[in-house]
Every structure is written in C-alpha cells, then in structure tokens.
Amino acid sequence: MAEVILHNVTKSYGPQTALSGVSMTIADGAFVVLLGPTGAGKTTTLRMVSGLDTPDQGDISINGQSTKGLTPAQRNVAMVFQQYSLYPHLTVRENMEFPLKSPLLRTPRAEITRKVAEVAEILQISHKLDNKATALSGGEMQRVSIGRALVRNPAVYLMDEPLSSLDAKLRADLRVELKNIQSNLGATFLYVTHDQIEAMTMATHVGVLDHGKLVQFGTPREIYEQPVSIYAAGRLGQPHINILPADLFGPAPSNATHIGLRPEHIQQGEGQDALVKRIEHLGDQTRLHLSFKNHDLTTVTDAHTALRAGDILRIQPQRPFYFDANGTRI
Amino acid sequence: MSYSITEPSNRQKWIAGGLVIAYAILTLLPLAWIIATGFKTPADAIAYPPKVLFTPSLEGYVNLFTSRSRVTPEDLAALGPPTTWYDEIVRQYGMVITGASRYGERFLNSVIIGFGSTFLSVFLGTIAAYAFSRFKVPLKDDLLFFILSTRMMPPIAVAIPIFLMYRQLGLSDTHLGMILLYTAVNLSLSVWLLKGFIDEIPIEYEEAALIDGYTRFQAFYKVVLPQAATGIASTAIFCLIFAWNEYAFAVLLTSGTAQTAPPFIPTIIGAGGKDWPAVAAGATLFLLPIMVFTILLRKHLLRGITFGAVRK
C-alpha cells in the first residue's frame, strides 16, 4: 500500500485538454473518489496513475518514487476498467489468475487457488469460475473485472465506475464489501463514480474535477457542507441543490448573484408562500416540487405529509450558500 | 428486396438444397475426373466415350514414382519372374523399373517452399500488422499504401528483373530464393488481412494485461495472439494456396534442386508417351496437403472470411 502524489499533472489529447495542473495527495490508505461529469478528466487521471498514459507535464509519485519512465507493470497498480476488458479467450478463473501468474508476481500455485477462491466468494461468482468470460452477464463481467484487481495486493487500486452495471441490491452489497476490503487491508483506492451514495459512504476524500481542473478536494462532508462553487455544490446532493437568484428571499451579500439551497435546508411553515406543484412519495422521504416567485425548487419533507399538489406552503432559507457571478462561493 | 423472417417452406428448402448440390457437383466434377483418371490404365484414360466405370489400376501411381526403360522381350524373359506387384505392372508393357522418379523430391520442395513462405509471411505479417494497428508509425498510411501497391500489378510483370537479380545473387533455383519470393508476394496480403483482424481486437485487453503485470510483448503473445488465431489461420490458408499453386515463377526460376511440383507434373507427359494417369496421379497427390490443411482450419477459415459480419 502506498501514498500517491500527483504534482501539477497536465495532459492533452490533440487540441483537447484532458487535465490541467492537477495536484492531489492520495494518502496511504485513503479512499479517494473522483467526481465530475463525462469529460472532466476522471478516467484520464486513473490512466495517468496506472501508466497507460503519461502526463505531458508534471509528475506522479507512488510511495515517494517518481513514476517517470515506469511501465504499468513496474508501478504495481491494479485497475478495474469501465468496459470490464475481460480476456475473452480465458475462463473466469483464468481471468482472475492472470495477474497472479504474471512475471511481476509469480505467485505459487496453491496461493493462486486460495486467493481466487476467496475473492470469488466475496464477489459471489464462485459458481461461475469455470465459465468462459464471454458467457457472463454484464454484472457478472464487472464483478470478475473487480476480482481480477482484488486478487492482487498492489500499491494502489484504480477503479473506473466498477459498480455501474450491477443491480441495486448487489451494488449495495459490494459497496460494503469494497469498503471493508479497503479498511481491512488499509489499501489506497482511487475511485471514479457517478453514484452519490458511493461517494458519500465509501470516500475518505472526494476530488471534484471540472474540465480537467481539480476544483475541490476534501472529505465528503466538506464537499457537501462547504462547496467552493456552484459546480462543486452540484456534484453531491440528491435531490440536486437549488440554485436561485441571490435576492429571491430577501437581502443578500452585495456581490452575491446566486443563492444555493440544499433541499433539506429549506425550512417549512415560516417565511413566504410557495405553491406545491407535485409530490413524490419515495417511501422513506417525500419530495416536494415547489414554485416560488416563478422559480422551481425542490425540497424534502416528512414521509407521511398531508400536503397535496396545489397547496400553499410557507418556506424560508436555512443555512444558504451564496455564490458570486463566477459561481464561486462567498 | 425484402427479407422474409418466416421459416422457408419445404418446397423452398428442396429447391435451395437442389441448387447447392448441383453447384457442388459442377465444381467437384473436374476433381472427380482427375482422381478417377489417376486410377485408370492409359488406354482407359483416353477411351471415348469416357469410361465412368472401370477396373481401377495403380499403373498411374507406379509410373509417377518410377523411371522405367524399355527392354527387348528376350532380356525381359532372362530377368526371371517379377518380384513385386509394381514390377509386374511395368513388365506388361515390356519395361523394367530403373529407379525412383523425381516426383518425391519435387513434392518435398513444394512442401518446404510452400509452408516455409507461409510461415514467414504470416509471422512477419502479424508483427507488422500489430505495429501498424497499435503504434504511431510515421507515414503510416503511406507505408500501408506502399505495401498494398505491390499487389497492384501481376507479380509476373517483374519476372525478368527478378530473374536477373536472382542470378546475380545466387538465389536462382534455391529453396531460400523461392521462399523469399513467395513471402514478398504474400506479405502485402498478409499485413492487410491481419491488420484488419488486429484492429478488431479492442486495445483494452492489452491495457488490462499491462496493468496485470505483463510487458507489452507478453501482452501481445498472451492476449492478442490467441484472439487473432482466426485471422492468422485464414491468412495462412490464403498464403499457402498461393505459394503452393504458383507456377510461372517456379518454371522461370527453378530447374534442378528447388523445382516445385507444379512445373514438374507436366513434364511427366513427355516420358514415354502421353501418360495421363501418371499426370492425374501427380495432380491428385498434389491436391492433398492443401485439402488437409484447409479441412483442419475450416472453422477458422469460415469465420475468417465472414469476419466482421458474424462477430458478436
């Protein structure tokens, strides 16, 4: 296990800047989740660390050692690809044994068998071990792909949306398993996801990427409670944060142009009138879609609310974020 | 034209089956004729109307593998009774076997040159195709076009320069010379075919192997090659068929040591009358290796030819 430091990493593909000046310290044993929409540079960051691509500028060090000129094998990293990339001519077992048999590890036979059986158990694919890799469902392929990484004990695990094609129950199971493995091993993880729950529950740190720039890096709570910008605030939160004109509810700081309100930061029963447009009962909570001075906003309320569409509800902001014209938080 | 997704009717199946069988008979007829002629006597072989039913004879094969000379009836009688079955066949015509013919060594030459050049074409082709497919090669498109352009004229157009070059270099009538020549002709086909196959293999597999602790060459060997097997097999068949059947250069550049079977088979006719059964026997045996090779690799060949269309 190791500490990974990115220092001022920049990468372009032709005219497209994929990463610009990204610096980040992934502490030994940290679970860092990268957030950002498609094209923000999440996958590129993983590829830089893995050595499949090399930075145009800047340096990446693993365990205090610069990775300049090192091949992926020499870096000793494990990666779970978004497209699974299972070796189609091999069985599930052979796929999972593949890294252990590499010239890098040269694991003894008994150890290979033990390790593969153990990881297959965790990933609930023991009964599929002798299937051809191509004869699996998408979710099974994804688990084999995770398994191929977990059999190893690398400097850092790189995972690119590893749980994206699993059904909800399995995803929840594996989320817990991955987190357990990470805490038990003290392993360092760099993890890309779109899933808010994965980010909030698994991460020790979250990095928010925007067009190749790292805009915020901190604990999930920090990102959630102290976002540096509208963009960072929008990465986390379900339902999405409400962004409204700054003076909608009354006086605002002079340079503020927008107010940001998380759905749970709208106090109900006091303040000004809003119209309830639609109600979504989700079971454990209820979402209210409101219209307030011709602006739509979303909030959450008690699961057993008596409110109905067309009702009038008084609301006022509670712990608002204010942002200036550039989207930066004040 | 629209395609029906319903099951074809029985009548349609019969018609389709009948057409396929008719076409198969049409294409296999010359083959059947050659094989049958090989087992006829010289008299049966030229009989008119052609004999469909005949008493099989190994005369053609005996004549193919032996050289014989005519002796007087007195000398023949002095030799005593024939000791082997093939002696007996030959003596009916007042001849004795004087030794083995050169067919065996010509056949062996064909095997060495055919398989040698096929191996070399596919080996070099795979490596080149991998490089063109995966690496940033300067002037890649121009180089690929240049490689293809060697196919744009019939190879025989350069026969005379090659003849002169080979004489100067001492490559005339050598196995190495013929292997190099057929490799040069086949290489463009092999690079282009294999590049197509390797392009189809997603690069992510190799990236996964690199991460899994393998070097690039090991990734190529363990991950790319097994998946390119289909393409390699079908490319090998195409190369082998060309090298095996090639006639013009073989006539021009070989005479003694490295002569292949195609230029040799017609020379059998001259040796002692029109010996069609021996020619047919030589052609039949010459067909066998490629038939066996193709049958062994037929699954790959079928998938290879329809590659891209049926791949899941």
UniProtKB/TrEMBL annotation, chain A:
One GO cellular component term noted in the UniProt record for this chain: ATP-binding cassette (ABC) transporter complex, substrate-binding subunit-containing
SMART domains according to UniProt: AAA (SM00382)
Keywords, comma-separated and alphabetical: ATP-binding, Nucleotide-binding, Transport
Domain named ABC transporter: residues: 4-236
Record carries keyword Transcription regulation: no
BP GO annotations: carbohydrate transport
GO molecular function: ABC-type transporter activity; ATP binding; ATP hydrolysis activity
Keyword match Nucleotide-binding: yes
Family stated for the protein in its record: Belongs to the ABC transporter superfamily.
Record's protein name: ABC transporter ATP-binding protein
Source species of the chain: Cypionkella aquatica
Automatic annotation (TrEMBL), chain B:
Subcellular location: Cell membrane
GO cellular component, one term: plasma membrane
Membrane topology qualifier: Multi-pass membrane protein
UniProt cross-references to Gene3D superfamilies, sorted A to Z: MetI-like (1.10.3720.10)
Main localization (coarse): membrane
GO annotation, biological process: transmembrane transport
Keyword Transport in annotation: yes
Pfam family, one: BPD_transp_1
Transmembrane region(s): 14-36, 111-132, 144-166, 178-198, 219-244, 276-297
Superkingdom, taxonomy of origin: Bacteria
This protein's UniProt keywords: Cell membrane, Membrane, Transmembrane, Transmembrane helix, Transport
ABC transmembrane type-1 domain mapped to chain residues: 107-297
Keyword Repeat: no
Family, per entry: Belongs to the binding-protein-dependent transport system permease family.
Name of the protein: ABC transporter permease
Lineage: Bacteria, Pseudomonadati, Pseudomonadota, Alphaproteobacteria, Rhodobacterales
